[in-house]
User: Which sequence fits this backbone?
DNA sequence: CGATTGACGTACG
DNA sequence: TCGTACGCCAATC
């Protein structure tokens, strides 16, 4: 990376994603909104794309879209990895869609509410 | 430098 | 209620 280690939007996203508890998930929009870029949910997804080469391990598999669908499963080393990890954490996934989405949903602006 | 795409979300039909 | 269209911001072609 560049020596200009300013508060990158990407790093901000990684930080929040890492705070997601096991067995819980969140959405791109929720993270974007928490960072103040509510209308830049796409940037969150873009950041996730870089999360593979970043820091320890960013639980990108815990980040889904507003529908609770595993939109980014195809971007993992193996499309099956995302669902497998979610199921391993107790999250039921059927048809690339998370079950009990509302129950496992974790909102940073709510849990990390300032 | 300009056009297109993208791990999304909201609005409209 | 479901399907389609448009908007945002940044990176890549």
Assistant:
């Amino acid at each position: 990376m560049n020596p200009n280690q300013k508060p990158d939007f990407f790093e901000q996203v990684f930080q929040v994603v890492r705070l997601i508890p096991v067995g819980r998930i969140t959405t791109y929009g929720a993270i974007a909104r928490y960072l103040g870029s509510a209308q830049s949910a796409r940037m969150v997804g873009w950041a996730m794309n870089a999360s593979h080469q970043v820091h320890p391990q960013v639980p990108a598999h815990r980040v889904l879209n507003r529908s609770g669908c595993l939109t980014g499963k195809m971007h993992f080393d193996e499309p099956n990895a995302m669902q497998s990890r979610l199921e391993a954490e107790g999250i039921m996934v059927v048809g690339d869609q998370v079950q009990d989405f509302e129950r496992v949903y974790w909102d940073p602006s709510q849990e990390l509410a300032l």
User: Anything to note?
Assistant: Residues 9, 37, 39-43, 46 of chain A lie near DNA strand C (CB under 10 Å from a C1'). Strands of chain A lie at 26-27, 63-64, 93-94, 97-98. The radius of gyration of chain A is 13 Å. Residues 1-5 of chain A have pLDDT under 50 and may be disordered.
